[in-house]
């Protein structure tokens, strides 16, 4: 079964200008996603979907393919990840190239490694999931979360206010790094998560949302810590 890696990287990032090719510990951050995908040995093709000439050049420098540019409709702030995946796989199909499995890796995912990709794909394949993505456990039980209104605290789930943390179920959130999907799911063009979507747990150290400059610094610190303890 042929496998395609798609790395979405449009040029219009606003909160962190030129985010997808900003230097992250010595090289453009997109390079980490490209290198992890290539070194995993899993993919028949690793491509970057972009609307930006400079991003395209950086992507090709690090070994990715940029066979076509993203359409204007999917290069705005409102296009979803699924919109991009549908467009890319349709373009490949038009030239006679089809894939059974697609992995979308975000351009700002320096914690993704070849081992994580290989191990997560093994779970995806063995369990025959429609899709699979990495998740991180919340550090505190969300069942005991609170809200603040007019400086007053109240429990979102008052029935859990006096329960011990160890008596509450773990909760997780999407790590926002990559998504394995069957091509059939993309053909439907709707959602990534179905009633047959799998999870691949990673640690809090192995993930970091990067939405602002503080996030960026935290990500660099985490990355350097991981490298120091390998």
What descriptive keywords fit this protein?
globular; 7-stranded mixed β-sheet; two-stranded antiparallel sheet; single chain; Spore Coat Polysaccharide Biosynthesis Protein SpsA, Chain A; alpha/beta; 230 residues; 21% strand; Cytidylyl_trans; 11 strands
Describe the fold and architecture.
The chain has 230 residues and is α/β, with parallel strands linked by helices. The protein has a single domain, classed as Alpha-Beta Complex (Spore Coat Polysaccharide Biosynthesis Protein SpsA, Chain A). It is built from six helices and eleven strands. It has helices spanning 29-40, 53-61, 81-94, 114-126, 183-188, 213-229; strands at 3-8, 23-24, 27-28, 45-49, 101-105, 131-137, 146-149, 152-155, 172-174, 178-182, 197-202. The strands form three sheets. Strands 1, 4, 5, 6, 9, 10 and 11 form a seven-stranded mixed beta sheet that branches. Strands 2-3 form a two-stranded antiparallel sheet. A hairpin with a 2-residue loop joins β7 and β8 (152-155). The longest helix is centred in the last third of the chain and has 17 residues, at 213-229. The chain starts with a strand and ends with a helix. 32% of the residues are buried. The mean pLDDT is 96. InterPro entries: CMP-NeuNAc_synthase, Cytidylyl_trans, Nucleotide-diphossugar_trans, PseF. GO terms for molecular function: N-acylneuraminate cytidylyltransferase activity. It holds the Pfam family CTP_transf_3.
